[in-house]
Write a structure and sequence with these properties.
This protein is mostly helical. It has helices at 4-37, 40-60, 65-81, 85-90, 92-105.
Amino acid sequence: MSSPGLQGSLARHVKTVEWLKAELVASVASLLRASLDGDGEALGETLATVVVATSVLARRLGIDYDDLERKVAAQVRANIQEEHQLERWYGDFSALERHLRESRRG
């Protein structure tokens, strides 16, 4: 038989994960609205909220920040190697890879 504290902790964890998922969906909806308005400041704030919500959700799901960062870097490299259309047209993934590399040095 499990202890009430463990059940409470599990319930709180599940509730937190569900809340973070709802926060992520709401943030994406805000992003879509902000992109229609063309408000650069609102777009930046909303994108930051999406990144933060995604990062914290990953942590709550057992993926630590370093592992998440490695996975992001691996996806960026894969998109460069596969010559993703955004990479061919704009060099976005190469720019992101440089940014990630330089931010780790700082």
